[in-house]
Amino acid sequence: MTIRTALTELLGIEHPVLSAPMAGVAGGALAGAVSQAGGLGLIGGGYIDGDWIEREWAAAGNARIGIGFITWRLDGMPAALDAALAHRPAAVMLSFGDPAPYVGRIHDGGALAICQVQTVQAARAAAEAGADVIVAQGADAGGHGASRGTFALVPAVADAVGAVPVVAAGGVGDGRGLAAALSLGATGVLVGSRFYATGEALARDAAKQRAVEESGDRTVQSSVFDRARGFDWPAPFRLRTLRNAFTERWHGREAEMDGTLEEIRADYARAAEAGDLAEAPVVVGEATDLIRDVPPAGELVGRMVREAEAALRAGGRFIVEEESDRAGP
């Protein structure tokens, strides 16, 4: 069984699986491995460190990959898009901001424009701006997101944008999630947390192990880490991470952080540099329960597709009866 969708046809890939451009975690080795396995890997352009992007692009080797940017950050560094387009990416993904100023430049650079949204209104705006693919991201996702759940958002976005392929993101951690996304009207999935815990991801080994051991019950959406890192994220986007000592100390007390913010940021920077996971974040989402090992990324792509195929086949065992078939004499 081969899962062919509008997404696989548009991107020229074998499997409808994209790896999320996680800032600082989705480097070239991860993106390259996902693409080599038949999906499409995306480097995380994140907060736009040009040297990091160049180094990680080289690490992808000859694999056909893409890149993702935080749109509001790109607004202050628009030249970064031109630098990325010079590498001839398959696609450029824009998240958390208005994509309209960039879609034309992406197309002129020979790439497809993938726009991630968190509301139906934003999906319509992205479609009007010329997005080739729209990612409907539910609040289940690790990293930054908004408030809507994936299960209701994905079909609503699919209905709203017509022929534009929709990709589901948020809470997809195995092949069952891929099968469910296809049933909801998506043409594929964008997966972050599950690829966080793979051999090629740039997360620390201890952080990957925490992802294996923890549960989605232990995640929280909060702005405390952004305050500690000095990132001025616009509302309504908050960061979903595993709970730790830092979130227990400050979540819900954000206003109190302002009084000692300089000290908090200095302490946080030292903890992050040391890899102290009591203070620094493990950025994964509600699919954490589905993370049980740290495989190579390419192996994970194959596993997810096989699981999805099995789940889709299993759907054929359900029997839907007409009302008349069950009616008595």
TrEMBL record:
Q: Name one Pfam family in it.
A: NMO
Q: Which GO terms describe its molecular function?
A: dioxygenase activity; nitronate monooxygenase activity
**Record keywords, A-Z:** Dioxygenase, Flavoprotein, FMN, Oxidoreductase
Keyword set includes Signal: no
* Family matches, as SUPFAM superfamilies: Inosine monophosphate dehydrogenase (IMPDH) (SSF51412)
Q: Does the keyword Flavoprotein apply?
A: yes
Name under which the protein is recorded: 2-nitropropane dioxygenase
Q: Which organism is it from?
A: Thalassobaculum fulvum
Q: What is the lineage of its organism?
A: Bacteria, Pseudomonadati, Pseudomonadota, Alphaproteobacteria, Rhodospirillales
